[in-house]
TrEMBL record:
Protein name: DUF1853 family protein
Organism: Gallaecimonas pentaromativorans
InterPro entries, per the entry: DUF1853 (IPR015003)
Lineage: Bacteria, Pseudomonadati, Pseudomonadota, Gammaproteobacteria, Enterobacterales
Amino acid sequence: MLDWVASTPALLQIGDTALLPAPGQIDLAALGQQLAATARLGQRFELLVAALLSGSGRYQILAQDCQITAQGRTLGAPDLIVRDLRSGEIEHWELTVKFYLGLASGWLGPGKRDWLEQKAAHLKTRQLPLLARPEAQAWLATKGWQPARSRLCSHGILFGDGPSYPWLAPGHQQGQWFEAGKLPDGDWRALARWQWIATTPSSELAAFTGQCQAPIMVQDGCSGLRHMVVPAGWPNNEKGEP
């Protein structure tokens, strides 16, 4: 999983892009326990990014998912506040890992609960500018922190054809999506959900049966490319992601 996170190209280019260091000295046993405590891909991605930064020798994590409150209400929680030990500067990092299927109307998540366009707008208007708000500045002052910039670390895959936007990062990962029964012949292997953010040799994956009750990611046993297979009628069917 660390290799996938460290090597996957950015999905979005909104503001400054965060560049991840190569894996360094990481306590894999402790990381494994943390990963075992959650099945949520977003939380696992955050844990993996934090492990890469901590083990790199370059970054010090000052805060992680720390809620900022003002006058009894929650303003938000920056994913990471880190210190770059080379420059001495403090940075705010937002992290996201997402998978979307292309439609004429936009990019829709496999669970049919979120759109890429909405996520991008939220990042641009709410998440990345969070620490520039006066209430957040007051909170930072109590910590003695003054972030020099906000960065976005975004990974994921876009499947199929959808609208093009200037904030899609050049070279982002792409695949196709197919309805069950319409996948071309080939050596297709099924990925468990946690393997969506892991580099897994095809030899370690079970053969795809050709049927699905919910969207499932598959890997070409020859090329290693990944695609999504959805139930017939998606996205107007009743089943979403597991």
